[in-house]
Amino acid sequence: xxxxxxxxxxxxxxxxxxxxxxxxxxxxxxxxx
Length: 33
What we know:
Number of helices: 1
Strand content: under 5%
Structural class: mainly alpha
Shape: rod-shaped
Largest sheet: none
Mean pLDDT: 92
Number of strands: 0
Distance between the termini: 49 Å
Oligomer: single chain
Radius of gyration: 14 Å
């Protein structure tokens, strides 16, 4: 179904965004300390 495809794409985007945000947070924390 199309809905499943869209849901899978959304999950992939959320996963990539989570990885990017985690990387930025780690970099910011490292910069602060």
